[in-house]
Amino acid sequence: MRNSDYYLPSIVLALALAAKLPGLRRGWRDPLVRSVHFVLFTATSCFVLAAPATIALINRLTGTPNIAAPLVYCFLCAFSCTCLVLIAYWRGGPPSRVRRVTRGWMAAYGTVIALLPVLFALGEAPVERLRDFDTYYADTPYLREMIVLYLLAHTVAAAVTTLMCLLWARAVGQWLRVGLCLLVAGFFFNLSFGLAKLTAIGARWAGGNWDALSTTAAPLLASAGGLTTAIGFLVPLLAPRFTAALHAGLTYTRLGALWHWLSRAQPGAEPPRRPRIPWWAAPELRLTVRETVIHDELLRLQPYLDDRVRRRAYASAVVGYAPRRYARAVGVAAMVVTAVEARREGQPPGEGTDPAQSGVHALTAALSPGREGLVRLSQILRSPYVTDAVRKEAAAGSAMPSPAPGERAPSADGGAPRRATLRPGPIPSPTYECAPGVIGRRLCRARCRQGITWMSYRVRCAVQPCALEDPPIDPV
Questions:
Q1: Looking at the predicted structure, is the pLDDT value of residue 24 above 70?
Q2: What is the pTM of this model?
């Protein structure tokens, strides 16, 4: 293999390690955090040290042929041990049992790592081999034992971790299952690496020549296993954070329409100060600030709410064949938009009146699910039903006769006199325009084609009764 086949995985693993280093500083005392970082470090070191160019450099600097071989084997055993320890901490359980299992693995692999340099020192490897050290010295005393020892240790670790992750993946879900499935694939590649090496060595002992398994297939399997294992360890740790950040960013964007609409200030007044957020702030912080600002503005808007506007908009949406739940959201959105316009035009608030109190209750009920209610309200602002309802309110307000100077117009509900607003009059009865469509053998002239496409009109007329035959709507 080329040097780039070793250095490319090491670069990817090094980037993952660099991304995790801030977490190591904060959670150094957590053994799980330490294990994750040590897995990435040992995997990166194995690929860097196993590259032929690195092996030649180490041999030249030390002056000892093949001295890089036991060094690579020690890091590979350390990687195998760390994977076992990480799985033990990851699965959890009684602390005493976890400590006993992890100490057993560390003691076993510590012994293997200590024996590898001793066996290399006892053997003789005068000929430098950069790519086929295992098969070339498969019959050499002591070096043979060193090669078989590290391969057995690596194969056992790969087999145990593969089995543990496979059994554990059946009992969990979501991102943890995805990570475990990737770990199963990565450890299977590592297991195949060890088996390919052992098969090539066995063929040497039997007098055959299957060196291609050790020099070509095994490095490719190791490269794929290292990358897949690193990704498998990172997915359960980083994917939930990425998903939460993505969801926060999408929610932040969806609340933009409501945030911009509520930001309209009264004439002559300075715009309300918004918290300044740095560009590097997390999406969750941006979403929290925007949500807080929206709630504050809705609280200031409560005296201008009018439940009569909501009821009229709801009735208009239902007549337009909107679903009931959608029509309720349309009514609340039209009430909020009309209240914003009333405050922006300097109209007096109706605080304490029955329509205002009913409007506050309706808005509270619409936002009771929490953030989803705000998102629904923000998205419904762009609905043609809301635009049509606000236009009707504005037209009705402009059609009202203006009161004489110094005189106040009476309110529509007969209460205290108030200046004319955009919300006069009772709930109008639905009117119908000629928009023909055939339902069976009858002609549909319901006012249901406004603001919808021709296909939507055909589908709705096919599955719903004629609006002319509907009973009067009670907008609740």
A1: yes
A2: 0.65
